[in-house]
Design a protein that fits this description.
Blueprint (H helix, E strand, L loop, with lengths): L11 H12 L20 H19 L9 E2 L6 E2 L48 H12 L5 H18 L5 H12 L12 H12 L6 E2 L2 E2 L2 H13 L3 E10 L6 E9 L2 E11 L2 H14 L2 H5 L3
Antiparallel strand pairs: 1-2, 3-4, 5-6, 6-7
Length: about 300
Amino acid sequence: HGIDPGINFSDLPAIRRVVEEITQIPVHPRAPYAGDFAFLALSGAHQDAIRKGFARREDENSALPNGAANGYTNGCDGMQKNSGRSGAQYGHTEPMLDGQAWRVPYLPLDPADVGITQADIIGINSQSGKSGILWILRHSLGLIPPKNLAIEFSRFIKDRSAKLNRQFLADEICELFLDQYCEQRHLNNESLSRQKIDALDQTINGLTPGHCQGEKMLNGLDAAQEEIALALGVQIRCLEHSSHVIDKTKSLAAFVECAVEDKGESHWGVGIGPNLRAAYALSLLSSVMANEKWLNGST
């Protein structure tokens, strides 16, 4: 109802930058709509409520005719708004143009309507829980780690945030996660002998989806475990594992917790590959390389 004034706030961050440049006055972080903290949730309880609110919205949209023709559609790089206008306060029952009211806790309007990305609404500090971590990893990297891995990484981030007395940006969270659990990225270091590095390169580069052992067809984890153990000359004991397809790239992500020769503590590893066997091989390699006790005696 009323007259459309033709004002476009679909990219409010860009408008803010222009205003700050012209006036040479920074917008206060807690200013409504345009401030850095206007849509930012740091509390673990708030983040969990927001995550569940978006999940409920996805479920509602999936029940609409033509799938998710209105509102949000699912994707590993975030949920993109297709149509409709933002609602009012949480709990407001007036329907939107697409038949849905905006009902996401702690977000008075749809952040996408003013150019705020998914990464901008979740901040991570010592108060945050695993829900915020899972949100960022899913919408930034397309990764959905298992619960126990998410809990472990959440504790790591909370401790680090408390020591540094600051919050972390989404890009920092992603980089810390990859550094912590994708140890194969640092394969060419002094932890392994040149012979073992060459064997690993040959093994991983030659991985294909299928693998036969006599008349037995091994699954992705069994085949990868056999080949990584052979290349490194160690026994690997897997405790927990999971995998999923990364929607955006269609690559496979694998998560595995394992111990080496029953020595020391178990470690999580993460791998991303073109098929399940390769992904598990990389995740196993990451887990093994994280075991410092084994590495110290491996060269």
